[in-house]
Amino acid sequence: MDRDRLLDFEDAPVPSGASPWVEGFGPGTDLTIAEHDPRWAAAAVRLCRRIGDALAGVAVSVEHVGSTSVPGLPAKPIIDVSVVVPDADAESSYVPALEGEGLVLAVREPWWQGHRMFRHAGPRANVHVFGPDAAEPERMRIFRDWLRTHPDDRERYAVAKRAAAAGGGHMLEYNARKQQVLREILVRAITQAG
Predict the structure, then answer these.
(1) Tell me: the pLDDT tens digits for 23-74?
(2) Cβ of 173: how many Cβ atoms within 10 Å?
(3) Residue 103: which of 64, 48, 39 has the closest Cα?
(4) pTM for this model (two decimals)
């Protein structure tokens, strides 16, 4: 994917009256930040394998992303997984298989890179599904890899995460409060990745 697309953070507007939340779901309010737990990586490997097996022949990629994927980075103890499929709007090609693995569809945002998000209880996880043209999975991978190899930015992001969590509220508010630091680090990582 070209650098200009990765650096374009302009999101399509939410259609009038639309909500990303599937009925019965809303933003979480548990903003607990835990010290990094090495068991997160093993749990993510198992979950990614289950998802990959369930979506054999469908998934383009299945990757552990987010803060739990960065050794040494404090995180909410919720594993993030990025899944890319050929067509995120073709829900019948992946939703039943993921539901068969105990995942529950919580978010449907076709206007934002085709994004769907599933929740999983054991291990606690958010599984993000995108189509092949989405920039977000690539951004997640670049950000993860950068933080793994740049301890100063990893610490800067950890400080931003703790400050954002201290503000209380729900997950969307937490994400907004740490967004500036995340974007500054991500822009540097994308630019240097070339």
Answers:
(1) 999 888 889 999 999 999 999 999 999 999 999 999 999 999 999 999 999 9
(2) 14
(3) 48
(4) 0.94
- How far apart CA 161 and CA 157 sit, in angstroms, is 6
Task: Give 49's contacts (C-beta < 8 A, 6+ positions apart).
Answer: none
d(CA 193, CA 6): 11
DSSP string for the chain: --HHHHT--PPPPPPTT--SBPTT---------B---THHHHHHHHHHHHHHHHTTTT-SEEEEESGGGSTT--B-S-EEEEEE-S-TT-GGGTHHHHHTTT-EEEEEETTTTTEEEEEEETTEEEEEEE-TT-SHHHHHHHHHHHHHH-HHHHHHHHHHHHHHHHT-S-HHHHHHHHHHHHHHHHHHHHHHH-
Q: Roughly what angle, to the nearest 10 degrees, separates helices 171-193 and 136-149?
A: 80
Place of tokens 């950068």: 146
Q: How far apart are CA 189 and CA 194, in angstroms?
A: 9
Contact 66, 142 (CB under 8 A): no
Query: 75-101 pLDDT, tens per residue?
Result: 999 999 999 999 999 999 999 999 999
Instruction: Provide the β-strand partners of residue 36.
Output: none
